[in-house]
UniProtKB/TrEMBL annotation:
Hydrolyzes acetyl esters in homogalacturonan regions of pectin. In type I primary cell wall, galacturonic acid residues of pectin can be acetylated at the O-2 and O-3 positions. Decreasing the degree of acetylation of pectin gels in vitro alters their physical properties. This is Pectin acetylesterase. InterPro entries: PAE/NOTUM (IPR004963). One of its GO terms (molecular function) is hydrolase activity.
């Protein structure tokens, strides 16, 4: 059994550190509008866009985990947005060992053969000016995610019974090369965005995206829930650190070796200075000194949407409780820890400098808020200082005003659309 490295852009060498940073900026072009239809969801019309398989990608080794070609969905811009582009990385977690990647290869997150052939475009991808006032008439592209490492690896795994392709970097390059002659190469404005694993991909590829577009283009990047802190969870484990370490070892390390580098070249720098990351006392044995991995910051202007309270640490603690009393106790401990986590994240974000970054940080139990119409721009969307996510991102991109919005600690924000109400966690 062995891992095999491969070629790829240097950007991949910076991929998948256990902690991430903010968002960045870019621009693009267009052609005749290509509609695929619409559907009625909840009483509202939502655009449906068909899939495009990248031609010639397989010959370049740009393939999904199972060897199928990569894919994207494109809805053409029109009018004043005909030469502007918005590219959205699909999210969907990661796989960090052969077993999880093999399982993933049998799903739509590992094979284009199993993907939905039509995608709904809502939120930041909507073509309705009343739902997406700043980007509705841009060329909007959804990049499908099928490599398991945020479009970042370039290696493979083979034994006597299986072959897995870890070619996220090549997939990114193949999609961009296919879009450039479709108008991306003459872009005037561009925005590279993504959520969760796609938000991480935004950080990884933002500067590369900037380099590929005209110097005159306005290029920025947006990461929605793509900032992951290297901190202990409520049971004291550094879950994110160990998880991302294994992703890098499986999918990215062979690429580093092809450049004569090693994992040690990208070792995490732990910061234990309490003046920078003050001690977080959750309760009892869960007292921890907060640590943080040094952020690998992109040079291109960027912005970030994030939520302050991750669901995973709560689920880990509550899931191991034997009875309801224990679950209540762990929930209370979780709330204390989440306040600490909130403070730690704010310190990490603020310590990273300006560089044209924007922030929209709310305290909602939610994920991928830019992709859903209800949370992106609607009458009852979450708001900070009466500004929706869409309004803040528009102000940041077009430099219309303040683009740094941070709300109070939970449960102060009553505009949230909480994905999992706390009372459900106690059932």
């Amino acid at each position: 059994m062995r891992n095999r490295g491969g070629g790829g852009g240097m950007a991949a060498a910076l991929v998948l550190l256990p902690v991430l940073a903010y968002l960045v900026c870019p621009s693009v072009a267009a052609g005749p509008r290509q509609r695929k239809g619409s559907a009625d969801l909840g009483g509202e019309r939502v655009l449906q866009v068909g899939m495009t398989l990248v031609p010639g990608a397989e010959a370049k080794g740009a393939v999904c985990l199972d060897g199928s070609p990569p894919a994207y969905h494109l809805d053409r811009g029109f009018g004043t947005g005909a030469r502007n582009w918005l590219l959205q990385f699909e999210g969907g977690g990661w796989c960090n060992d052969v077993a999880s990647c093999l399982l993933r290869s049998t799903t739509g997150h590992g094979s284009s053969r199993l993907m939905r052939k039509v995608e709904y475009f809502s939120g930041i991808l909507s073509d309705d000016p009343s739902h997406n006032p700043d980007f509705y008439n841009w060329n909007r592209v959804k990049l499908r995610y099928c490599d398991g490492a945020s479009f970042g690896g370039d290696s493979s795994y083979i034994n006597d019974t299986m072959l897995l392709h870890f070619r996220g970097q090549r997939i990114w390059e193949a999609i961009i090369l296919d879009l450039l002659p479709k108008g991306l190469d003459i872009a005037q404005k561009a925005l590279l965005s993504g959520c969760s694993a796609g938000g991480l991909a935004t950080f990884l590829h933002c500067d590369d995206f900037r380099r590929l577009l005209p110097e005159s283009a306005t290029v920025k990047c947006l990461s929605d829930a793509g900032f992951f802190l290297d901190v202990a969870d409520i049971v004291g484990n550094y879950t994110m650190r160990s998880f991302f370490d294994s992703v890098v070892a499986l999918q990215v390390s062979p690429l580093l070796l092809s450049y004569g580098l090693s994992n040690d070249s990208f070792a995490l720098m732990q910061l234990h200075d309490p003046s920078v990351f003050p001690a977080c006392r959750c309760l009892g044995k869960y007292n921890e000194t907060l640590t943080q991995t040094a952020l690998a910051l992109a040079a291109t202007p960027n912005s970030s949407i994030t939520f302050l309270y991750p669901r995973m640490p709560i689920s880990v603690g509550i899931g191991v409780a034997a009875n309801k009393i224990q679950r209540h106790a762990i929930l209370i401990r979780s709330l204390f820890c989440m306040v600490c986590y909130r403070n730690q994240m704010l310190v990490a974000l603020r310590s990273s400098g300006d560089m044209g970054r924007g922030l929209y940080i709310n305290s909602c139990f939610a994920h991928c808020q830019s992709e859903l119409q209800d949370t992106w721009f609607a009458p009852d969307s979450p708001r900070i200082h009466n500004k929706t996510i869409a309004q803040t991102i528009g102000d940041w991109y077009f430099e219309r005003g303040n683009a740094s919005e941070i709300d109070g600690a939970y449960p102060c924000d009553h505009t949230c659309h909480n994905a999992i109400p706390l009372e459900q966690e106690l059932v």
